[in-house]
Design a protein that fits this description.
Shape of chain A: globular
Number of helices of chain A: 8
Structural class of chain A: alpha/beta
Strand content of chain B: 15-25%
CATH architecture of the largest domain in chain A: Alpha-Beta Barrel
CATH superfamily of the largest domain in chain B: Aconitase, domain 3
Number of helices of chain B: 16
Largest interface: A-B, 63 and 82 residues
Number of domains of chain A: 2
Structural class of chain B: alpha/beta
CATH superfamily of the largest domain in chain A: Aconitase, domain 4
Oligomer: heterodimer
Number of strands of chain B: 18
Distance between the termini of chain B: 55 Å
Order of helices and strands of chain A: EHHEHEHEHEEEHHH
CATH topology of the largest domain in chain A: Aconitase, domain 4
Helix content of chain B: 25-40%
């Protein structure tokens, strides 16, 4: 997994509530793309492209300088709906590595963390203000520092955000959970053996505990 | 004495292997479900790492999302469907993961077949790369959707790192009138607490109305917990749950059944358990629900009109209402009853079970699908399809002009196989009315199966109670 430490980049405002994962990755049943890095063209497909494949000029990610955005500032409940990790993958594929919103769906939030992407929760007021500020292209660059847990505007105004210390460490180091979990497999096997002793109807007939 | 605990707390405690300093936990996962569109990536990841699935028989895989429901002839499948099916099932084979194949009568929508096979049981932690995994919480299992990367962690270690959720109880009380169903209850709840009302929470549905529901109705409610933002919905296991599960193919039997029931009976929330949030909703006098917008929270009674964005509770919602009404081509003040529809869809993991088909067919019986309406029924599984046919339900639908399909997810979401055309309006029993969800520029109205049946035969959004009078 790619680490997330600090990012200075263009932030695009998308001040909309309940942006869902069908909005973000609309064609789950369609193209059957299997390579996450090839999913970029799918990102926000119905908002970004006309039916003939030409870009829709009214969509923020098609407008300079926001067409180079690495940060998205959205409304509450970002990433709601389907669990499809394609939503995180396709955003990553077009370079969006940080999303700032008042709240996220629990599943999407977790998916970001697994892909070196930083979901930042700020208050509704702070998000609105930030969104309005970066709407002026001259102010579009933000600095996001995960170690310091700060989002800094071009005028020096700083917002501090909360993130679980464990999630923060994982992102800073660029490591996923599997390695850490493997390190305690003995404990997991012991837990499972005891658990299935008490719940024999769940024991594996092949004795895989 | 131990303090009183909620159902969620008991499930968490029973599965927690390790608690990290920030309150996240490493939890044991009992069982996981797989389907073709989002699960193979996890298997692919395992193979890249050179890891085996730790406990292959804790998995059950079934195709449902991208398969045609008109036919089952693989040579006529699209290239992308074939690729997804192959990517999935070849890897399941290599890992020893049990598969219900396409031509098996047990095949169906993943969250329908889990309970139907008795794979879903009370007290389990269950996951699947699908947000509607919460459906399985109707049995008192902690069931939730996860991403493909988290699924890889589960397959490799049979565990998952999760934040502990806050607890919310929604008590549903009162006396429901005729032709009011679980779908109306859950839509009313989402309308009350909002599309994000349950974010960060597990919602336990309780109260006299919930305990009197069938398992089918309970599954409909828990299915849409995610539409209220809650990753998990829960209902305490009781005699109704045990009666549903007893004798199911994968449920325990004999002495193991008795042991299991004894444990399951300890799971309901203790009487004095405290929830972080407590909501009560009285269903007395509630009319059938129908959504008017592009979020499940944008819902009202069928007798009402499209609301005025000027009445929205805040600016963000006002903007959302305006955008939704533009997308839906509905003006404030328009009566919902009478709005013309083009498509009618009865199906999905929300409402494709036998109870749902019975309720819809009771409305359809002796009537015809209105001119210009394309109506389809997609049973949730092969077993449900067969059971419905044994009752003559298929004949009622077919004679009325509905298509009677093979099981799968079908028109619930936009795909190459079944979609709502641009600008068309669909009365749908599914769970999401998002923009473009059922097709590019498709307009979706969510409602109960009986309400979709009423819309199909009248060609308009209709209060089903008028047809049953």
């Amino acid at each position: 997994m790619r680490a997330f430490t600090r990012l200075s980049g263009i932030a695009a405002p998308l001040p909309r509530r309940n942006v869902n994962t069908d909005d973000i990755y609309p064609n789950l049943g369609g193209a059957a793309i299997t390579d996450p890095e090839a999913m970029g063209p799918c990102a926000f497909g119905n908002w970004r492209w006309n039916a003939d494949g030409s870009p829709r000029p009214d969509f923020i990610l098609n407008q300079p300088p926001y067409d180079r955005a690495q940060i998205l500032i959205a409304g509450a409940n970002f990433g709601c709906g389907s669990a499809r990790e394609q939503a995180a993958w396709c955003m990553n594929a077009i370079g969006l590595r940080c999303i700032i919103a008042p709240s996220f769906s629990d599943i999407f939030y977790g998916n970001c963390l697994k892909n070196g992407m930083l979901p930042v929760r700020l208050s509704e007021d702070a998000t609105d203000a930030l969104s309005a500020f970066v709407s002026d292209p001259a102010n579009a660059t933000l600095d996001v520092d995960l170690d310091a847990r700060t989002v800094t505007r071009s005028d020096g105004c700083v917002a501090i955000f909360d993130i679980s210390p464990r999630d923060r460490q994982r992102l800073l180091a660029g490591v996923d959970d599997i390695g850490a979990t493997f390190a305690i497999m003995d404990r997991i096997h012991a837990f499972a053996a005891d658990y299935h002793h008490r719940r024999p109807w769940l024991a594996d007939e092949r004795g895989a505990d | 004495m131990t303090p009183p605990r909620t159902l969620y707390q008991k499930l968490w405690d029973d599965h927690c292997i390790e608690t990290y300093p920030d309150g996240q936990g490493l939890i044991w996962v009992d069982r996981q479900l797989l389907y073709e569109a989002t699960s193979f990536q996890a298997l692919q990841g395992l193979e890249k790492r050179g890891l085996p699935a730790l406990r292959p028989t804790a998995s059950l895989a079934v195709p449902d999302h991208v398969i045609p429901t008109h036919h089952r002839n693989p040579s006529a499948f699209s290239e992308s469907t074939r690729r997804l099916l192959d990517a999935m099932f070849e890897r399941c084979g290599r890992q020893g993961i049990p598969v219900i194949p396409l031509h098996d009568e047990r095949q169906g929508i993943v969250h329908v077949i889990g309970p139907e096979q008795g794979f879903t049981l009370p007290g389990l932690v269950m996951v699947c790369c699908d947000s509607h995994t919460c459906t399985n919480g109707a049995f008192g299992a902690l069931a939730f959707g996860i991403g493909s990367s988290e699924f890889e962690h589960v397959l490799a270690t049979q565990t998952l790192v999760q934040p502990k959720l806050r607890s919310m109880r929604v008590r549903v009380t009162g006396e429901m009138g005729p032709a009011i169903f679980a779908k109306d209850i859950i839509l009313a709840i989402i309308g009350r607490i909002g599309h994000d009302g349950g974010v960060g929470h597990a919602i336990e549905f309780a109260g006299s109305v919930v305990t009197s529901l069938s398992m089918e109705g309970r599954m409909t409610m828990c299915n849409m917990a995610i539409e209220a933002g809650a990753r998990s919905g829960l209902i305490a296991p009781d005699e109704t749950s045990f009666a549903y599960l007893k004798g199911r193919a994968m449920a325990p039997s004999g002495a193991a059944w008795d042991m299991a029931v004894a444990y399951w009976q300890t799971l309901p929330s203790d009487p004095d358990a405290v929830f972080d949030k407590d909501v009560e909703i009285d269903m007395t006098g509630i009319s059938p629900r129908v959504t008017w917008g592009t979020s499940p929270e944008q819902v009202t009674g069928i007798g009402n009109t499209v609301p005025d964005p000027g009445d929205a509770p805040d600016q963000a919602r006002q903007a959302a209402w305006l955008a939704a009404q533009a997308y839906m081509d509905l003006k404030p003040g328009t009566a919902l009853s009478g709005v013309r529809i083009d498509k009618a869809f009865i199906g999905s993991c929300t409402n494709a079970r036998l109870d749902d088909l019975r309720a819809a067919s009771a409305v359809v019986k002796g009537r015809r699908v209105a001119d210009g309406v394309h109506a389809i029924v997609v049973p949730g599984s092969g077993l449900i399809r067969t059971a419905a046919e044994a009752e003559g339900i298929d004949r009622i639908f077919i004679e009325a002009g509905f298509e009677w399909r093979l099981p799968g997810c079908s028109m619930c979401f936009a795909n190459d196989l079944d979609s709502v055309s641009p600008g068309e309006r669909c009365a749908s029993t599914s769970n999401r009315n998002f923009e473009h969800r059922q097709g590019v520029n498709a307009r979706t109205h969510l409602m109960s199966p009986a309400m979709v049946a009423a819309a199909a035969v009248t060609g308009r959004l209709t209060d089903v109670r008028e047809l049953l009078a």
